[in-house]
Design goal:
Layout: H1 11-18, E1 37-42, H2 46-50, H3 52-63, E2 68-73, H4 79-85, E3 90-98, E4 101-109, E5 112-117, H5 122-127, E6 136-139, H6 162-176, E7 186-189, H7 196-210, H8 215-224, E8 226-227, E9 229-233, H9 244-251, E10 259-261, E11 266-270, H10 275-278, E12 288-291, H11 295-319, H12 324-329, H13 331-345, H14 353-367, H15 376-379, H16 383-390, H17 392-402, H18 407-419, E13 423-424, E14 427-428, H19 435-445, H20 452-463, H21 466-469, H22 479-493, H23 495-502
Parallel strand pairs: 1-2, 1-6, 2-5, 3-10, 6-7, 7-8, 11-12
Antiparallel strand pairs: 3-4, 9-11, 13-14
Helix pairs in contact: 6-7, 11-13, 11-14, 11-16, 11-18, 18-22, 20-22, 22-23
Length: 503
C-alpha cells in the first residue's frame, strides 16, 4: 500500500518481524531535525497538522525555511503531552485523486517543536513571547474560537477565549521588547469565518479597550502586526481508526497522531503581498495563493464545491445513492453534476476560465476520492439555508447575466422540495433542519392530493419564504412554473426519467 521511508532506521524492520512496535519519536526517525521556534500555533488538531504544519515541514526540508511550530492547546487536556512524547513527530497519509490519477503519499512531519497547555504552563506560554525569533501566529480554534468574551480579564491565567490568550501574549511581547516595531507578528487565522483576520484584530482591540491597555500597545498592534484574512480548504478525515493497525504494520511503529487527508489543499492569504518573502511557499509551487482580495476565491469555493454538494444531495439521494463518490461515479448523476458546474455555476463567476476549470476539475477529483466516504445525508443538514447561501446566488446571477433560468439548478430546487416530503422509496428520510422549516413542509405536503394545483401551491409557498430567501422568488418570471413542472415530473415519472428529460 505504501513504501517505508529510507530515513526510518533498520529497527523498524526488526520490529515488524517481531511484531513489536515503539511509538514514533526522534530516536526512531533518523531524519529528525530541530528548528528555531518561529510559529505560535493555537490548535493541535488534525486539520492544522495535515495542512499548515505539513506545509511548514515541506518548506523546512526543501527551502531551509528553518522554523518550527510551538503548539498551544486551546483546551485544558493532556493531548499535547502525548505529542511531546513523540517529539512533535507524526505521520501524514495523503490519499486522493489528482487530475484523474490515484495518489498515495506518506510522510513523517517534523515541524512541531513542542506543545504547551496554558492551563498548566501559563508562565512558559508567556515566556515564549520573549523569543526574538517568533514571527508567525497560526490558529484553527473552530468557527466559535474567534469570539469576544466579556468575562475575560487582564489578570486571568489564562483567560478562556483564544483572542484574549493571544492579546496577553502580544502584550507580554510588547513590554518585553519595549515596543520594538520589528517584533510584531504576522497573524494567519484559519478559522472558517469570513474576514477572520479582521475579526480577530477587532476583538483584540476591543479587549485592549476593556482592559484599559496603553495607547502605545494599541498603536503597536495596529502598526507592527499584520492580520491576514485567509481561506483554507482540505478535507481531513483525521485518525484512520479502521486501518491504523495495518498502517502500523507497514511503517513499523505506533503513532497516536497518525492523520489522513485528501490530496487537494488550498490556502488563500489576503493582504500585504510582502509576506511571500518570509513565508515563501510560492517557491515550492504549493497551492498557497497570496492575493489582494480573496472574495473571488471564497465565492468560487462556495459556488462550485459547496454549491455542487448541495445541488447534488436531493437529486442523488432520491435516485437511490448515499455518498458523494457513488453520485459522481453514476453515469446519469455524474453527468448532471458536471453539467451543472460547467454550464450553470461557472458562468456566474468572474475568475479566469483557466482558474475556474482547474478548480472544477479538482472538485470532481475530490468527489471521486475512494478513500473518503462522504455521506449525502451529512451534507443535507440544514439543507434549506445551505441552498440559500450556496445555490440561490448562482440561480440569481445566472438569470441576471443570461436573462434565462438555470434549468439544472432549478431541478435541484424541485428535488429539494420533494426531499423534504421525508420519504425515499417508502423509507423515511431523517430530515434535519429548523423546526419551523420542517413544520412548514409537513403542513404543505399534508395538503398534496396528487393534482398539479396542489404541487403549485406547495412550490408557491416555499418560494414565498421571504424570511429564508430574503426575497419572494415567485416574483422571478417563470421560476414558479418551472420548479412546479419539475416537481410534478419527479413525482409522476420518477427522479430518473425526470432528470433525463431535463438533461
Amino acid at each position: 500500500m505504501i513504501s517505508v521511508f529510507m530515513t526510518i532506521i533498520l529497527s523498524f524492520f526488526n520490529n515488524l518481524r517481531r511484531g513489536v512496535f515503539m511509538y514514533l519519536n526522534k530516536e526512531l526517525y533518523k531524519g529528525y531535525r530541530e528548528y528555531p521556534e518561529r510559529i505560535l500555533q493555537f490548535g493541535e488538531g488534525n486539520f492544522l497538522r495535515a495542512f499548515a504544519d505539513w506545509i511548514i515541514d515541506k518548506m523546512n526540508k526543501e527551502l531551509d525555511f528553518n522554523g518550527s511550530v510551538l503548539v498551544i492547546q486551546p483546551r485544558n487536556n493532556n493531548r499535547v503531552y502525548d505529542l511531546n512524547k513523540q517529539d512533535g513527530l507524526y505521520t501524514l497519509l495523503i490519499n486522493g485523486i489528482d487530475k484523474g490519477n490515484l495518489k498515495n503519499e506518506i510522510s513523517i512531519v517534523n515541524s512541531i517543536s513542542r506543545g504547551l497547555n496554558t492551563y498548566v504552563e501559563y508562565d512558559e506560554y508567556l515566556k515564549s513571547a520573549e523569543n526574538p525569533d517568533m514571527r508567525f501566529v497560526i490558529s484553527n480554534t473552530t468557527e466559535a474560537g474567534i469570539v469576544f468574551n466579556e468575562e475575560d480579564r487582564l489578570d486571568d491565567m489564562p483567560p478562556s477565549s483564544f483572542p484574549a490568550k493571544l492579546t496577553l501574549w502580544l502584550y507580554h511581547r510588547y513590554k518585553f521588547f519595549n515596543g520594538d516595531t520589528n517584533k510584531g507578528m504576522l497573524i494567519l487565522p484559519c478559522e472558517l469565518i469570513e474576514n477572520n483576520g479582521d475579526s480577530l484584530k477587532e476583538i483584540i482591540l476591543k479587549l485592549c479597550q476593556n482592559w484599559n491597555l496603553e495607547k502605545g500597545f494599541i498603536d503597536w498592534i495596529n502598526n507592527s502586526n499584520r492580520f491576514y484574512n485567509t481561506l483554507v480548504d482540505r478535507i481531513v478525515p483525521g485518525y484512520p481508526k479502521e486501518k491504523a493497525k495495518d498502517i502500523e504494520k507497514e511503517i513499523g511503529y505506533k503513532d497516536k497522531f497518525l492523520v489522513e487527508s485528501e490530496y487537494f489543499y488550498l490556502w488563500v492569504i489576503e493582504g500585504d503581498l510582502s509576506i511571500k518573502e518570509e513565508f515563501p511557499t510560492d517557491q515550492l509551487g504549493l497551492n498557497v495563493l497570496f492575493v489582494k482580495n480573496l472574495d473571488l476565491y471564497r465565492l468560487r469555493k462556495v459556488r462550485i464545491l459547496n454549491g455542487a454538494h448541495t445541488t447534488m444531495v436531493p437529486v442523488s439521494y432520491l435516485y437511490g445513492l448515499d455518498t458523494v463518490k457513488d453520485s459522481i461515479d453514476n453515469p446519469l448523476i455524474g453527468d448532471y453534476i458536471k453539467k451543472t458546474i460547467y454550464n450553470e455555476i461557472m458562468p456566474t463567476l468572474d475568475l479566469s476560465k483557466d482558474e475556474l476549470e482547474d478548480f472544477a476539475e479538482s472538485v470532481l477529483d475530490r468527489f471521486r476520492n475512494p478513500f473518503i466516504k462522504h455521506y449525502l445525508m451529512s451534507i443535507s443538514l440544514n439543507g434549506m439555508s445551505k441552498f440559500k447561501t450556496r445555490v440561490l446566488p448562482s440561480i440569481l446571477e445566472y438569470k441576471n447575466r443570461n436573462n434565462d433560468l438555470p434549468k439544472l439548478l432549478l431541478f435541484s430546487l424541485a428535488a429539494t422540495i420533494y426531499f423534504y416530503k421525508g420519504s425515499r422509496n417508502g423509507e423515511s428520510i431523517n430530515l434535519s433542519d429548523d423546526t419551523e422549516i420542517l413544520e412548514l413542509y409537513n403542513n404543505l405536503w399534508s395538503r398534496y392530493d396528487g393534482s398539479y394545483n396542489s404541487i403549485l401551491y406547495i412550490v408557491e409557498n416555499i418560494l414565498a419564504l421571504d424570511k429564508l430567501w430574503d426575497i419572494n422568488l415567485n416574483d422571478i418570471p417563470g421560476m414558479t412554473k418551472m420548479v412546479a413542472d419539475y416537481l410534478y415530473s419527479i413525482i409522476n415519472n420518477g427522479i430518473e426519467s425526470a432528470l433525463k428529460e431535463v438533461l
